[in-house]
Design a protein that fits this description.
Shape: globular
Strand content: 15-25%
Order of helices and strands: HHEEHEHHEEHEEEEEEEEEHE
Number of domains: 1
Radius of gyration: 19 Å
Structural class: alpha+beta
Largest sheet: 6 strands, mixed
Distance between the termini: 49 Å
Length: 285
């Protein structure tokens, strides 16, 4: 008979299974989303590479020709992300490290410098600043190398950051936030994208893998960044797990963050969504 926490994790387990099933499904669902759809779906990698494919080999289920190499997808991803009003900057190819100094200041939604950067090196990954985008990203980190949670989080069924968030959600009498933009990370983690209340200071980013929300539940917000879906590392791509708009930041999570943990340097705002035709020179996904 399953223990209480095992039963509580049912909804989370089902949600993760559905997300991974979507990534494995063949062929992927065709997308007919507008340019400004928040899931960045036009150029995002739909699923992990198959047995005879490489990361980014398929985009929207269509094989890429020699005239449309995978590296062009990253420029399209950068431009699509900027079209949402989400500032981007280049990170090193197949890496999470910034490719520029002062990346906070150089992140932009302006198509011109984005085109210049990715024309200079089409293999740059796409860094995204959550707080100036009006976003908070929860990074649910998997355990590695038989890593065990600390005593404060040790319980049957708790193995990683997603389990810790599930227990926190249950304790608050809330539902696990499955209906929000979800990104699957190459290392087996999950990133949940949320809207941050407009005009309020963003919570300070986690210095490591933990936060006041718990073990392996990291906050990516002020003074930090994430890689946009479609970026590729040696471990694989960042992939859309659930194509949905970012949901509002749950109040039960906000209550766990002290006001002393907010940033004085970044205040959430409503991002400006660009309208109009695709910019000149932008590759088609």
């Amino acid at each position: 008979m399953a223990g209480p926490l095992g039963r509580r994790r049912g909804a989370l387990g089902d949600a993760r299974d559905r997300a991974r099933d979507r990534l494995r499904r063949e062929p992927p669902r065709p997308r007919r989303r507008p340019l400004t759809h928040p899931a960045l779906g036009r150029a995002a990698v739909e699923r992990p590479p198959g047995p005879q494919s490489t990361p980014n080999q398929r985009v929207k289920g269509l094989p890429l020709s020699p005239q449309h190499p995978p590296r062009q997808d990253l420029k399209a991803i950068a431009l699509d992300t900027a079209a949402r009003g989400w500032p981007v900057f280049p990170t090193k190819p197949r890496s999470t490290d910034p490719a520029v100094r002062a990346w906070r200041q150089k992140a932009t939604t302006d198509f011109e410098p984005i085109n210049r950067a990715w024309d200079h090196n089409p293999e740059y990954n796409v860094g995204l600043l959550p707080c100036p985008s009006g976003l908070i990203v929860l990074d649910l980190i998997p355990a590695r190398n038989l890593e065990r949670p600390p005593l404060t989080h040790r319980a049957p069924g708790v193995h990683d950051g997603a389990d810790v968030l599930a227990a926190l959600t249950e304790a608050a009498g809330a539902r696990f936030p499955t209906e929000t933009m979800t990104v699957m990370t190459p290392g087996g983690g999950i990133q949940l994208y949320f809207q941050h209340p407009q005009g309020r200071p963003c919570p300070q980013a986690s210095p490591g893998t933990d936060s006041p929300l718990g073990w392996h539940v990291a906050i990516r917000s002020a003074d930090s960044y994430v890689l946009a879906p479609g970026s590729v590392t040696p471990d694989g791509p960042y992939s859309i797990g659930h194509d949905a708009s970012p949901a509002p930041w749950p109040s039960y999570l906000a209550s766990h963050l002290s006001t002393s943990l907010t940033s004085e340097h970044c205040t959430s705002h409503t991002p400006h969504v660009r309208q109009g035709p695709r910019p000149t020179g932008r590759p088609h996904a």
